[in-house]
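User: quick one, fold this
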Amino acid sequence: MTAPHGFSVSRYAPERGTLAKLTARDSVIRRLDWPMLLSALALSFLGSLLVWSATRGRTELNQGDPYYFLFRHVLNTGIGVALMIGTIWLGHRTLRGAVPVLYGLSILLILAVLTPLGATINGAHAWIVVGGGFSLQPSEFVKITIILVMAMLLAAKVDAGDQLHPDHRTVAKALTLAALPMGIVMLMPDLGSVMVMAVIVLGVLLASGASNRWVLGLIGAGVLGAVLVTALGMLDEYQINRFAAFANPDLDPAGVGYNTNQARIAIGSGGLLGAGLFKGSQTTGQFVPEQQTDFVFTVAGEELGFVGAGLILVLLGIILWRACRIARETTELYGTVVAAGIIAWFAFQSFENIGMTLGIMPVAGLPLPFVSYGGSSMFAVWVAIGLLQSIKAQRPMTA
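Assistant:
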């Protein structure tokens, strides 16, 4: 008998005995996926240069210090790497037992955003200002929580050998737990994050072997929900304007269409090799708003050209490729589902961020993983890398 998606039943059979102890020759370090890790580090390094170029001359943002954002980006990356190491050390199986606590904490954090503790940045009331110029965006960590809580539920009986695939009741519970934080984030409103979470849920369901009826039903519900949200006027004016500018790029080029028009000009002027780091006229002239965060890819396009922008795509592709290998080779459904959720997250968010700078996707306020400036995003993506590395490193050794 064969399990869903061509996997053999034994692949998700319960493990017998304890895992063999790692020897010096086959240590956790040797088991890490180094192509993925080095690609993520390279992206963060490129991001630091691009963020520095985009902000070193913007005195209204950097408080007169050209190294202000560079230092913070490097610091965020360092903290992110430390979180990755901590995640590997704890292990994804240990975190599996802590999922209920993590889920509860994430709910409390996003609810705190809706209190006076919350702050509005770029139209989205999605932040908590910690102090000292630092802010926290809880929705970034909710992405991880949704992956973990759904994986815990969907894989429990399959990994125990009781079922070949999740039953309908289990799928319903998993979707309910995912819908709660998504609904709260929608109230902020943070439509971009909700879009990513919806794609994560789809990726998790597909990888879990759940009935295709759930996947088709979820897609249908998403389309219906989008129609109702628009018809009931639940979107803020700035969100409606973003979609209007996407549908008609020539609409109000000095207003709602300004960002995307300037982004395309910046990328188009880069040519094959670019104008050179710190030499882009659009970047130094400060024509592209939010260039260190949502539109950081325009710096690469203008100053590093097609080659530099292509390098970013290649590095992202390596991370996704290695993540797919980890998802396929793991011996438990829980690891497969966690990896699949991260793949869906990284793939869609990267496509949306780069696509909106090219004018093929609407502006959604999503950062480019590992590259854009932002502590919450950087911490979350490195924790995700830690989960992937843990799944690979803690895979039972073959005889």
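User: anything notable?
Assistant: The chain has a mean pLDDT of 84.
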